Amino acid sequence: MDTRKCECGHTNPIGTMLCESCGKPVDFRDTHDAQQQAFPDMRYEGMARRSQTYSRTIIDRIWNFFSSVKVAIYLIVITLIAAAVGTIFPQQIYIPVPVPTEADVANFYADTYGKLGEVYYLLGFHNLYSSWWFVLLLVMIGTSLVICSLDRIIPLYKALSKPRVNQHRSFLTGQRLFGETSSEAAVDTEAFMTKAAEQLGKKGYRIYREGDSLMAEKARFSRWGPYINHIGLILFLLGVLARNIPGFHLDQFVWVREGQTVAVPETPYYVKNENYQTVYWDENEMAQNLDLQGKVIPKTYRTDAILYLNKNADLPGAEPDLVEIQKGPIVVNHPMVYEDLALYQSGVREMELGALNFVLIDSKAGNKALGNLKLDLYSPQTEQQIGNVKVRVIEYFPDFIMGTDGKPATKSNQPQNPMFALEISADNGTKEKLVYLQGGFISDTENPRYALDIKMPDLIDITGLMVRKDKAVPFIYFGAFIFMVGVVMGSYWQHRRIWVHREDQRILMAGHTNKNWFGIRREMEHVIKALEIPILIQEKGKS
Amino acid sequence: MLITVSNWLLNAAFILYVISTIFFVVAVTGKRWSGRDPKEHERRFGGIAYTIAVLGFLAQAGYIVCRWIASGHSPTSNMFEFMAFFDFCIILAYLILYRIYRITALGAFVIPLGIIMLAYAYVFPKEVTPLIPALQSYWLHIHVTTAALGEGVLSVGFASGLMYLIRTVSQERATKSTRWLETVIAVVLMLIGFILMDSTYARLDQNTVFEMQQQQMDGAGQMKNVQVEYTLPAIVAPNGSTIIKEGPLTPIGEAPAWMEGKDAARKLNTMIWSVLSGLVLYGILRLILRKRIAAALQPSVSGIDPELLDEISYRAVAIGYPIFTLGALIFAMIWAEEAWGRFWGWDPKETWALIVWLFYSAYLHLRLSRGWIGTKSAWMSVIGFVIILITLVVVNLVIAGLHSYAGV
Ligand code: HEM
Q: Are B29 and B126 in a shared domain?
């Protein structure tokens, strides 16, 4: 390792700014950082940092790249611009119309936003935040955070843990805040220093004494702020990464009809929708009369749910054996939480067809009503007995369409357009077939004996529950918390050091802070006034 | 009843801020009036102006309390309430920073900024609306109030950054700096122009109504006739629309076809009017003053040490940044986790909060590690405020997202 010799004879490691032995600034003309040529930056009290020490191997170069604040700023600014570009047009997940296929997505951007939209789509900006290069940017910021912290933490620790009290004169005059008595000050050093210590102590400073020198220091801990906040950020980013670990993150959605119990995907749980309800604000609940023009404002979306655990979840093929584990309402902003599983109220289809209701009529008996027939649209009973008549469901298409091959088919399993083919057979030997579609009937018989009279169908609400599991969230919050602690430490306190030094009968006073010079200057001037010595504090770079 | 009181208090606050501004202007410009001791003059009038600003602040606090009690939720749930609250935070941040630095001229810049925000709030419907389910969470209130406070403090950073630039940019001859400074002032005037236009036409009842076919966004995707009503005279009509009620102007053209949403064309029309009226205001001011606006403002700050302005601006950012982080990002994440089951979703509003945050992070790094102080740092604080305004205004009104408050 190359070394560097100070006037005083001490040999310092390269990258050192102040002689480790006497504290005199080491000559800097050959550093790459123009800023530091004038007077050493006091951030690390002149301690050597790895990134300024080596630059030979590839690893050194990478290390230096990521430990550079300049690079960090570039990364931050590029991320910022990229993030802004991603909001020009909606991201794919926020497209307001259904786009089931990739072609629909492409069309959406082209049709809605013209040429610009097309380019936007082609460049992949419609999924910007999960694109490889955006993720890479975040990873690079993370890397930079780790390396820059490692690069600086030890020098900072060394610098902060053994402050030099007895500084070299050129160190003091080099400070941004400096002042000295113009002529010999006829004071007793010991008494003066004691008084100065007392005054500075009143301002909350910790005092270090050494011979004819005094150093007062305040809020040293705040220097750790940026490092703590960076560690918080690192933890945060690690938490975000952890969501990709299998089992850490679950994102599913289930529709549950009233009365229905369905399996919660990818979990051993089942959920039952006992009742769904939308409540609207009542006129006299409102603080002010609003002219809503007949509209209503929703107040709550609420599902009364029961969560079950399937004890047979591990036995393939076994019938589910459900035990109730939790019961209660799921309301927007108040998910049902069980261990790390959370169910969110997040959608509803109200007044959907649940069952069709009919009255069976015997036209040969003077249109006598024989009884009610209920066709459940989700799990139709195959056979029902009404009096001495048997009604059997031969075929059922919940969402009927005529297929291209001329055969009936169903578009989906949602009963949007139910079609039933029924067989009605009576004890008296009559056997008729009947097709129900869109509120009408077709019979296979010329003059059918039995007919169905349509009644009000059962309407049900189907609640949409979002199923989430995010084991990383507490970790992410923890990272955010650490970040806040660090930021507050670094922003609301400032590290201040004041040196008082007696040399050649003069009194020298210098001050240094990492930020907020106005405050430290005011404190120094206050102390000078209290000590009644003629020192005028000069601030460098100020006329 | 309480709502009437609260509205009354807010109006009072508005008027008090205006009076306070007048006193501030007298305090900083009247120093050279003959027969006066400049220091004593500034102290006296500055003191009066500050006291009136405090009274305005108290009136506005009263408005918030009354409205909160009357509605049962914090008054931050629609655009009117939010902008009024934002103004409140700006004034609060000013009062705190004034206590530390005691610069009279600061009020002459910050209070008008607050007035503009409050006036802007008045553009939106003022009714107390009940909360829809998504907004019924105390996290929402904590999130919005803290975020607004952070933004308020950062806005004071902008005001003093602007003061720094007015103080230091040489007005001897036209340079890039003077042009940009004039541009910033012109943009502020556009906001004022918009407020003036909108509040004038809202009273005149000169609406233009258009009708057009539009695809419904409900999944079925059917075409339906919709009506769009312009308060301001129409310069651009919605694409493919017909006028069903004539306004004071016949539209000159149509909005481009990609401006789809029901209100996109109306927003474009409003934007055009804002720019035009801002430029007209700027032109009038230039004619009256016969010099650059910044040059005219310069004497009001000429007595202040620029480094002090620089420090105030930085201090505001240093105080505002943690509050903003906590409110606009961390509380937002906690709430989003509770409401939507994800702490982050790249919704435009969230993304813009992140952009603001990244921007100020860059500011802090540049300042602390790369020595960007003074002019560069002042420009950064100006740009930062522009980004905040984009987040609060443009994203809410133009880029629709989960967070958009309905309304104008
Ligand atoms: C989004 C990412 C980042 C954020 C939000 C962030 C935030 C901060 C904050 C708030 C400070 C304190 C500033 C002040 O007290 O005025 C700071 C300081 C600092 N940051 Fe970052 N930072 C980020 C990334 C980085 C990266 C990648 C590096 C790597 C080079 C870095 C290096 C530094 C350094 C060297 C300081 C100064 C520490 C000191 O002198 O005490 N930062 N950062």
A: yes
Residues 6+ apart with CB under 8 A from A224: A156, A486, A489, A490
| Cβ partners under 8 Å of residue A501, min gap 6 | A166, A167, A169, A172, A212, A213, A214, A507, A508, A509, A510
pTM above 0.90, yes or no: no
Mutate to test the pocket of ligand 1, among A157, A229, A236, A488 (most ligand atoms within 8 A of CB): A229
Q: Are the beta carbons of A241 and A479 closer than 8 angstroms? A: no
Is the same domain home to B163 and B207? no
**Positive or negative torsion for Cα A80, A86, A92, A93:** positive
Range of the domain at B27: 2-171+291-407
**What is the pLDDT tens value at each position of chain A, 543 positions in all?**
344 556 555 556 555 666 655 566 665 444 344 344 345 555 566 666 767 666 677 888 888 888 888 899 999 999 999 999 888 888 887 776 777 778 888 888 887 777 788 888 888 888 888 888 899 999 999 999 999 888 888 888 887 887 777 777 788 888 888 888 777 666 777 787 888 888 888 888 998 888 788 889 998 899 899 999 999 999 999 998 888 888 888 888 888 888 888 888 888 899 998 888 888 888 777 777 776 666 788 888 899 999 998 888 788 877 888 889 899 999 988 899 988 888 998 888 878 888 888 887 777 777 777 777 787 878 777 777 777 778 788 778 877 877 777 777 777 777 777 888 888 887 777 778 888 888 777 777 777 777 777 878 888 888 888 898 888 889 999 999 999 999 999 999 998 999 888 877 788 888 888 888 888 888 888 888 887 777 788 877 654
Query: In terms of domains, do B21 and B164 share one?
Result: yes
Q: Is A246 helix (H, G, I), strand (E, B) or coil?
A: coil
Q: How many CB pairs under 8 A join A and B?
A: 159
| 37-66 of B, contacting A, C-beta below 8 A | none
Residues 6+ apart with CB under 8 A from A379: none
Residue A289's φ and ψ, nearest 5 degrees, are -70, 125
Q: Please tell me if the CB atom of residue A490 comes closer than 6 angstroms to any atom of ligand 1.
A: yes
Q: Among residues B290, B323, B350, which one ends one of the domains?
A: B290
Do B337 and B263 belong together in one domain?
A: no
Alpha carbon of A15 to those of A39, A57, A227: distances in Å?
14, 17, 21
Domain boundary among B273, B290, B307: B290
Residues B273 and B372 in one domain: no
CA distances from B135 to A286, B121, B142, B273, B405 (A): 15, 20, 12, 33, 11
Chain-centroid distance, C-alpha B331: 22
Domain count, chain B: 2
Q: Are B285 and B315 in the same domain?
A: no
Instruction: Verify whether the Cβ–Cβ distance A72 to B365 is below 8 Å.
Output: yes
Residue type, A396: Y
Q: Is the CB of A141 under 6 A from ligand 1?
A: yes
C-alpha A302/C-alpha A273 separation (Å) is 10
Task: Compute the distance from residue A228 Cα to the ligand 1 centre, in Å.
Answer: 10
Best of B7, B132, B154, B350 to disrupt the A interface (most A CBs within 10 Å) is B132
